[in-house]
Amino acid sequence: MRERIMTLQLRKACIIGYPVKHSRSPLLHGHWLHEYGLDGAYERAEVAPEDLASFMAGFAGKGYVGGNVTVPHKESIMACLDAVTETAQAMGAVNTLWFEGGRLCGDNTDVVGFLANLDEGAPGWDARTRTVVVLGAGGAAKAVVYGLLQRGMERVAVVNRSFERADALRERFGSRVLAAPWEALPALLGETKLLVNTTSLGMSGQPPLAIDLEPLPSGAVVNDIVYVPLETPLLTAARARGLLAVDGLGMLLHQAVPGFERWFGVRPQVSAALRAHIVADIVRTNP
């Protein structure tokens, strides 16, 4: 009987994606479950796109109290939810699920993760500049641009090789966003003290992001949301110029905090021990 009671009390969450075996979310949340001595579990749920609706229809019945969502489901899963936050609506994408009053809700915590990582790695960054340059115009760029606007930036210049994709972000978020072609980058760098890379360039297995950081003024911050490898060529170049470099791992760690708190009732800390735990896995799997 005691064993059955313990099973009923077990709170489960999962990461939903396709494929999902690469996800570090189970490692991250598992660390917190162990650290806080909680009776819970965090699993991988590999769900093909054609099976998403049926999987979500039985989500509560599988014993899940919530979960995370990764590619390719971040947008399509919105049709399966009862409610989404204002942030998720603005993003057009969801990465965190939980039940509230019997309703399945969705949020996008990438915005929280991005801002918290910058606050931790470059305290006071938002007092240094009112304009920001963002490289890339994909899904990650949406969260970055939205977060920067929420923090009060007066202008966010989105630079992308496909001008049309950059312009789509301007249309989504309004007049404070400037869409710019790649050729405009040198001039834009001279007007900002924060550069954020949201492209996959520099990621393990991808070509490096080859840009000249010389136009950036002294005291500028360079943030690369890539975290495999932790030290991208862009960050190396920034350090060589004496600029403050912020890697992307903290965004992954901080975006996980709200979900864990909703599922397991404890607000976890992004600690040095957690970072070391994830870094060890990155080193192990990407020698």
Question: What does this molecule look like?
Answer:
The protein has 287 residues and is an alpha/beta fold. The chain folds into two domains: 2-109 and 256-285, Leucine Dehydrogenase, chain A, domain 1 (Rossmann fold, 3-Layer(aba) Sandwich); 112-250, Rossmann fold (3-Layer(aba) Sandwich), CATH 3.40.50.720. The chain contains 13 helices and twelve strands. The strands form two sheets. A six-stranded mixed β-sheet has the order 2-1-3-5-6-4. A six-stranded parallel β-sheet has the order 9-8-7-10-11-12, with helices on both faces. The termini are far apart. Residues 1-8 have low confidence and may be disordered. Pfam families: SDH_C, Shikimate_DH, Shikimate_dh_N. Keywords: Amino-acid biosynthesis, Aromatic amino acid biosynthesis, NADP, Oxidoreductase. Residues 15-97 form the Shikimate dehydrogenase substrate binding N-terminal domain.
